[in-house]
Amino acid sequence: MSRSLRIAAAGIVAFGTLYALILAVLNAPQMQVNLPQQVALNLEQSGIDHPITAVLLNFRSYDTLLEVAVLLVAVVTGLALRERDALTAHTEQARDPMLHALTRRLLPLLLITSVYILWSGSYAPGGAFQAGALVAAAGVIARLAGYDIASRADVLLRLGLALGFILFLTVAVSAMFGGRPFLNYPEGWAGSLIFLIEAVLTFSIGLTLISLFVHAPGDSSPRGGDDDD
Amino acid sequence: MIVFDILLGIGLILAASGVFLSAQLFRSVVLFVVFGLLLAITWTRLQAPDLALAEAAIGAGLTGVLFLDTLGTLRKAKHKRHRKKETHS
Amino acid sequence: MTPILLIIPLAFAILTLLLPRNWARATIIPGLVLQVGAAVLLCIQIYHDGPQDYALGDWQAPLGISLIADGFSVTLLALTSLVAALCAVYAQYFLTRYPREQRYFWPLFWFLLAALNGIWLAGDLFNLYVGLELLGLSAVGMVALTAEKTTLKAALDYLYAALFGSLAYLAGVALLYGAYGTLSIVQLSEMAAANPTTQVALGLMTVGLLLKTAIFPLHYWLPPAHGGALAPVSALLSALVVKASFYILALLWLDVGALAVTVNAAQAMGFLGAGAIFWGSWQAFQTRQIKMLVAYSTVAQLGYLMLLFPLAIGVSEAAAHLAWQGTVLHLLAHAFAKAAMFLAVGTLVLALGHGRINDFGGVSQRNPVALFAFGLSAVSLMGLPPSGGFNAKWLLLQSAIASGQWHWFVVMVIGGLLTAAYVFRVFRVSFVQTAKHDIQETHPALQFSALALALMAIGLGFASEIPMSFMNLTDFTPSPGGSP
Amino acid sequence: MTIDLWYAIVGSIIVALSVFAFLTSRHLMKKLLAFNIMGSGVFLIMVGLPQHQHGVDPVPQALVLTGIVVAVSATALALVILRRYVRAGGNPAP
What we know:
heterotetramer, C: two-stranded antiparallel ribbon, globular
């Protein structure tokens, strides 16, 4: 009884949401501000040819800084909740020759692709986050194949996780020593600094996502049922 | 091309419904990845190649892997609980 | 000056994450001193020069993101720094029993502070979304720290509520951008008109923020999370974190969407508040665990904040002004009092080894300072003079009279009586009965940091003019009227 | 109707479906799937609605990119807590 009541209530809420959203979407007034135009006008000054990267790492870089902080918070909590036995055997699968062979071919390919995507982000689709995801994919595959990646939560790992954020924050703050506003890039340096930040971010984001996978409690990969006793 | 967009939109809605209606979690997760891939195609239709890339790599790829991996541990935990119950009774 | 308040917590978050445990501990006090100092300096600056905009990266809004430091935001910045500093002093001693949790508590603490400061200063709707997520995830992480089954479940429920709430908020942001083409709060408050898109957007954002503020009947996640976390975490969550989503709610209703909200909707918000006051107080009266009592008290006290909407929308300017001042004062007083109460209760639970109210006999003799702190904060919560809580409720009552809304007057009076009822439950057992079993000594720093916060709640009763004078430096004050 | 508006409407439908699923499903993982799909629906509205008016707009696209990364962080965090909870003997489908 209470279950059907719950479904009925949820149905009403969902229909209300649908009605409201469609109403809002169809009746949207004419926009008074044309932001894409402003982006286009200031693109040259941003030091980046690709508008989305320009928005992410220059016009609205503050959002991106906080977003990297969100990733860090997630991984810090992940590390806090890892179990002490997370470091134990994951050698079991390394014997799987198929997976091993596949990994050895796939890994370089993924890493090269991620470098390409990172590099292309300054003038075409791509950038640190997509590249970081590919690095993470490479890491996850390597981990599944039994490679020992990011399994120890020591200071080196923490440094790697935070490195992108540290560089980003340092560049952002150093502007203030030159009397310029927070998050401003020095004249003429924007392009190269953004690329540097993105490169380090790619590494840190990749490592963050790998750590969240590796340190997730309850054994991150199919072990031979050795923890059942 | 409009027909393609209508079909793609319906496909997204169906995939989402499939995720929610499926009784098995494994099928839900697989359909979720399918949803992510359809969404990646949608982003290219909306002239957002960056988002297509991100959705394929992060939304469908990584999130899918995380879900699948968790599903594995949940199953193990369930087996373990059941076995414990049997030995206790 | 303004971004310093973001840089300090972010930098210390990284420091505490990377440094070895003892060094990390040593950075806490310098960090807090810097933080409080920066907040005070910014307050002085705003007091002299008036509200300020800061274009991050030198990109003016709407292309870039600007920070806005006005009277309201610097008041909240100062509050955050003070409460967080005392909670941190407490945590330093409290967490010595939790070596593993301590390692990750400090980075999360600083990220939480960065998120709070970022929200108070934000001048951009999407940036507020990122800030809310940073706040939510670090708060959830802190709840989950102890990794016990019950706290993990509480953290999960909290996380799901927070995520769902921020998505509802984000949907509203998407609609507003689609309607006006800008995310800047200043621009939107000039443009947003009463049309279906704006109203749907506001509705979605309101639902999401009510869920995140734990307003009745969407409060289900708060008591287990605030009641189950470690004492300093509970204090931070109850005193500060839930206020962030309320702040955004007030910003939306009284500034950005001032032309799109209706009097009826504002009254409906008031009824939710009344529901929160009655339901929260009743649950606080019923519960057996002391920390749950304090957590339910938060549910009830958050209800008073909701009364801002009916008392300030569609009434005379004078009444709206009173409501506005009363609400801000209530927010401040509740933050001090509730932080003090959670810290005091945490000390008592530590001393007794349990949290069952009925077995609280004897703590008055062995832990008088902590119990005194509890009592002082209770005075402010009940709204007895002299306290910040009294002044706040006095202003709110006056506002209700000025606009002739007697039903809200009655709600507040009953709310005060109910608060007295659940608070006196604790005093009755702790004074009357003698100790049944051993009571441990606790570190004086634990008791005195709670007392300091409680004294601030009381002192606010004598120094209400200070926050009030800052409130006059705010860009948005409630507009009389509002569309029918 | 432009395809942008069409996808904004598809996004609205997906959001409504996810709201229903979020409120009715009991398994915590399914709720999380609903959160992710609801996010995608919101993203579709976010990009589709402004592009319907003035063509390709890099700003909402950048915002959605941020949103995707935030969503994956939140999902990963939720799964970590969920797994720890199940390890502690909790039931993922209360």
